[in-house]
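Hi Y.,

Following your request, here is the sequence exactly as I used it, all 285 residues.
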Amino acid sequence: MSDQTYVTLNDGNRIPQFGIGVFMVPAGEQTETTVRSVLDMGYRHVDTAHAYQNERSVGKAIRESGVPRDEVWVTSKLWPSEYGEGVTARAIDKMLDRLGTGHIDLLLLHQQFGDYLGAWRDMERAVDAGKVRSIGLSNFESDRLEEVLGAATIKPSVLQVECHPYYQQTELKRRLAPYGTTLEAWYPLGHGDAGLLAEPLFAELGEKYGKTPAQVILRWHIQEGTIVFPKTTNPGHMAENFDIFDFALTDEEMGRVRALDRGRRYFTLGLEEQEATLSAFRPED
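Below is the corresponding structure, written out as tokens. Let me know if you'd prefer a different format.
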């Protein structure tokens, strides 16, 4: 298995391009075991969030892993109830206490609601104070993206959104290009959609390279320059997902995957529905 690749962000920091996501992984032993397992396999990027309620477990696993802290990239996210000048500064300190990792490598605004501009100003101050290395956004796809980009002194280093071969975010990438903001993909395998994984193209390429359809899709993301962190608690899948750095798709094959774009999302709530659904949630400290 070859070493994984890195992406240099617009702030000069190098982020491991492949990681593990722990969305909906229960706090405690399951999160700790998952994080320890992937770190043992060579993963060096963990993506969590306050809303996931497992930051303490992520931090504990990292501290006990034996892997030097400066080799592990830790991403977490603030919830809209934590947005606003002063409010966000306190929330960042609480996050640092929960994680116990000394600093946060990448801090994101989780959703595009609330006082996100006030939150961004506090995040910039946290970078200046050395508490956070890089800052970015998650799920900002409306014109609120441009609002933040226009107001930001430190431009977002990443934008984390749904992205997979059926929904490739080509227009969003065009909007981000002037700022050097890198795309991160959640649902990189299309939420495990059987139809996507059964595309004949991925079977064909998998046979050619001795890989599974999922590995071909993840390799496509890597060559597109996208940062990915598929979620799994299955050790076999963890190892399989990470075993994608010993082959490369040709330019022609990359183009054939791009031709699969259908503009098809798996998360389909509109902006107002999202706000109504998410606004009542308050993560516990």
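The chain has twelve helices and ten strands.

Thanks again,
Q.
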